[in-house]
Write the structure tokens for this entry.
Amino acid sequence: YTRSLLRVIADVNATPVPIVPALDEKGEPLDLSLSLLRSVSPIHIEYLRNMGVDASMSISIIVDGKLWGLFACHHYAPRHPSFERRSISELFAQMFSMRLESRERQQTVEFERRARDISDQLLGAVASDETLLRDPDWLADILTNAIPADGVGVWLNGSYAFSGVTPPTDDFRRIVRALNATAAGKVFATDHIGSLIIDAEPFAGSAAGLLAIPISRSPRDYVVLFRTELIRSIRWAGDPHKPVAYGPNGPRLSPRESFNEWKELVRGRSRPFTASELRVAETLRATLIEVVLRLADEASAERQRAGARQEVLIAELNHRVRNILGLIRGLIRQAQPEEAAVRDFVKVVDGRIHALARAHNQITEDHWGPAWLQALIDAESAAFVEEGDRILSEGEPVMLNPQAYSTMALVLHELVTNSSKYGSLSVAGGTVKLSWECNARGDLLLHWRDIGGPPVKPPSRKGFGTTIIERSVPYDLGGEALARYVETGFEADFCIPARHVSKPREGGAPLIRYPRAAHGQREEPPADLLNGQRLLLVEDSLIIALDAEDIATRLGATDVMTAASVDAALDLIAAQPPTVAILDINLGSTTSFPIADALFERRIPFMFATGYGEQAQFP
């Protein structure tokens, strides 16, 4: 019908004449596609006879190169239209097709213009208020200006909202699941929801057809336009369902014999969505996806900003907590009298606070999350033992939550301290074996064994250190602790409940083994370490500055100059250049980097000190 625009049957009773020969010289039948004389199907002839028609002529209506419709002309007597009439009829059909095509294109242009206007309106409105994308009433007002609908449903991030006439919630969920399995990310439209899901008849009165616009990737989010049921009475020229007759050659369609008016009531269907409306929907899909992606980018950027703010907050918290611990240490040192017993007490308390500070620094490096047990062991042993092979540790990689980590920092500190004073670490060749494993419940079993040390016996009086070893894990963590004094050396076993224990994920971050210090805290630094030096100490906390000044004086410094700000430090450098300097990085709202630059220009050695640990940022 697209190649031969005009077809004529002059007489349905004419006797067809066979073509001789039936095949050409190539053995193929003659091509009669454009022939006006070719015969037609016997069933069609029978169909016309049943109508009482003796002649017919059909003229094709072509729009955009496709068959749009037909002009069907019937005559009740044989009739052979002249060439002039056929030419006029064909010309009329072509002019009609051109006019129809122009009108449809004009309609399409109008739809596209409205789609662009709506797209601009969507982008402008959502840019200032992203919650509008979840407002079905607002979307309905916008979208139905281009695509008429009776209701709108929005499915976004697993939540839904409705406006107007829509199906029930459970059925809407079924529709979304079916769309995810069927629509494949494209605009999907149907005038019969029953073809998409089963049991759609009960809500056909509120939603019989739909147009779904996907607005994200799989699993997809949707904006769905619904149309209500349109009950139509269709008039047919006879029963539209062709009867099937069975003969010796199988089933055969028989043309209808009666052309009395046949009425059929169509239910469960809506007004169909047109091709122009589908093109508008594609334009809106691109716009909505752009909006969603833009919102996703903004949300991602905001999460990154929030993460950066959180890191700064955690670093600042870590800095302040470490400063508080430093203040406590300084107050204890400044308040100590000269009696040796009290000095020993201060040294013990100072060691415990320092152990807490080390543990606090490690758990804040991962945003107050679980930290490695091995890293804690390395840090505590490095503070007392010069040789790395004195404490032998073995066990599977495990992590402790912050509460357990702080508790075990004190316990391990006391274990190492006691062993350094009275146990195997107090003699040459003595070692400690520290092993651990997890039981079937996930509890962490930790074993401490002194090997090669002097004989030990239970203390006559339990001090605070022994109390920490025996009672911290049961009291703070709800676990178990058992200490034994045997001839071969001190032994201790701990059970830390599984709720405090974490195991690394597959492919997680590797275990960081902290390097051991070249010199531990068991021996005091040389008394003449700073002998004859003029020290510049830049620290914005008076107590910490006094503590550091006292330490520097004991180490032989002849002159200790303190400054709490950049300007004060630069004035001291200009007036009395130091021979060495210690700079706290953070000085309130500023840093000590300008001071470092001035010292570097004068070739004066300096070192940085900070409460931020390894998280300190250097230029």
